[in-house]
Design goal:
The chain is α/β, with parallel strands linked by helices and about 290 residues long. About 40% of the residues lie in helices and about 25% in strands.
Length: about 290
């Protein structure tokens, strides 16, 4: 697979499985890891509006990354225990360090390097599952959802939050930002990711055998009525785009002129008192029959 790395690992039965790591467009630097933590803090107020794991004892988090969402879940639901899986060593180490420093997380989490398509957990292990900003990077989301269903107990609830990158828009119109953003999405899509996966969650969950499937569009919107929130959202999106610049330049998807124009437009729109930023994502919930 283009842009992927493969590792071999033995499962609990001693059978060798292939672990496929999709190339992450943002990279794994400490700068990127800090960005993910800031992003989680900024978007918490929207992501968790309708998330309730207060009755769940043991949660599976697929694609925990640096543990940014994990620490929010552990803080919001004090009786929850979380088993986290991810496939990248740098992210897993960052998650261990982050969570290990939190008193409220002590003895409440486990972290495993594992391929979500072939989890080594037994059937009916967990009472719920949480996936956030992960399926856009997965080449086989249906296979992952099938595996998650296998390891969840009957009646368990899954919550998924995923991107719909076509919905991002700024006013005044910023053509360089939009052009860069589309190059970003094209690059991800061509490498077996899906930057539009959010709109597909309802179909995916139903086809994977889940019941009580529900979808809800979540808005990330700010205008002159909320200037502080608007600035934070704009800076968050600028940081996200800048994190992909090196990879997109190497791949020939963008050139330096476009990157410079994109930066100028972000600078200008942040100074504009009438600026509007709009984005949305999909949050889906379902249950295991």
């Amino acid at each position: 697979m283009l842009g992927s790395e493969r590792n071999e690992e033995k499962n609990t039965a001693g059978v060798t499985i292939q672990m496929t790591e999709q190339k992450y467009i943002h990279g794994y630097s400490t700068v990127e890891q800090d960005r993910l933590r800031r992003q989680a803090e900024l978007t918490e107020f929207v992501i968790y509006q309708d998330v309730n794991f207060s009755q769940t004892e043991h949660l599976l988090e697929v694609g925990c990354g640096v543990g940014a969402q994990t620490q929010i879940l552990l803080r919001r639901f004090p009786h929850l225990k979380i088993t986290c899986i991810d496939i990248n060593d740098e992210q897993l180490q960052a998650a261990r360090e982050t969570l290990g420093q939190l008193d409220y997380a002590r003895d409440r989490f486990e972290i495993h390097k594992m391929n979500a398509e072939k989890m080594t957990f037994a059937e009916n292990t967990f009472g719920g599952a949480f996936i956030c900003w992960v399926m856009e990077h997965m080449p086989n989301p249906m296979r992952v959802l099938g595996e998650v269903r296998r390891v969840l107990k009957p009646g368990s609830r899954i919550v998924i939050s995923e991107v719909m990158n076509f919905s991002y828009f700024l006013d005044p119109y910023c053509p360089a930002i939009w052009k860069f953003w589309m190059a970003f999405n094209d690059y991800q899509y061509d490498r077996s990711g899906d930057p539009f996966v959010g709109v597909k969650l309802g179909n995916f969950l139903r086809d994977a055998g889940y019941t009580d499937v529900r979808t809800n569009v979540k808005l990330m919107y700010a205008d002159k009525r909320e200037p502080e929130l608007r600035e934070k959202l704009l800076r968050d999106r600028e940081e996200l785009m800048l994190s992909a610049v090196d990879e997109l330049l190497r791949a020939g998807q963008v050139d330096k002129e476009l990157v410079d124009s994109m930066k100028r437009e972000f600078h200008d729109v942040m100074k504009n008192p009438n600026a509007i930023t709009f984005d949305s994502f999909m949050q889906a919930t379902a249950r295991v029959p």
